[in-house]
Recover the amino acids of this structure.
């Protein structure tokens, strides 16, 4: 009996996992972008009073009308006041999406590896710089700040966070290959 219950639970779990996806398609460009839970996306959407807002996080849930970015930590920390570091949980209606960009796992890993490599390299560079007797302490601090700013800007230029594709350029949201959701037409 328990094996039968376990089998049904596994079937419904796998059915639920594989059915959650959003397909952005553009027939003019002949492009299709599939977003599943676990993907990192940047979305532009109509927020409060129709104002344009942007969110960038990992997709945690997709329903027939919404996409959820981030984790809701209010269950684990109910007494914590929301602030900019904890308020990364967003539920966005699919019909409100105006811009999007899917970030690949390889791009994210490369970005993190580049940041770690830049930090380690700058530590070696700056340790030699501080040991050098020809450069004063204030000049070494200014050089280290400059190196940090240049490395941070370089990573932001190579791996932009902005939304790349606009819905008004012919992109359509499909939940399943045969379903179309009109977007941005209210």
């Amino acid at each position: 009996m328990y094996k039968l219950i376990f089998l049904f639970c596994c079937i419904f779990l796998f059915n639920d996992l594989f059915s959650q996806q959003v397909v952005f398609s553009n027939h003019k460009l002949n492009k299709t972008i599939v977003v599943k839970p676990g993907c990192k996306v940047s979305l532009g959407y109509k927020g409060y009073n129709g104002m344009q807002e942007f969110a960038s996080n990992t997709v945690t849930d997709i329903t027939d009308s919404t996409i959820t970015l981030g984790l809701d930590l209010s269950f684990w920390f109910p007494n914590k006041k929301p602030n900019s570091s904890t308020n990364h949980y967003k539920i966005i209606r699919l019909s409100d999406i105006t811009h999007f960009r899917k970030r690949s796992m390889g791009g994210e890993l490369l970005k993190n590896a580049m940041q770690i490599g830049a930090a380690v390299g700058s530590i070696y560079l700056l340790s030699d710089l501080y040991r050098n007797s020809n450069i004063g302490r204030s000049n070494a601090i200014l050089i280290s700040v400059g190196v940090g700013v240049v490395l941070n800007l370089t990573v932001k230029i190579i791996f932009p966070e902005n939304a790349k594709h606009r819905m008004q350029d012919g992109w359509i949201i499909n939940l399943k290959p045969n379903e179309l959701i009109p977007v941005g037409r209210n």
Q: What stands out?
A: Residues 101 and 164 are 5 Å apart (CA to CA). The mean pLDDT is 77. The first helix runs from residue 2 to 19.
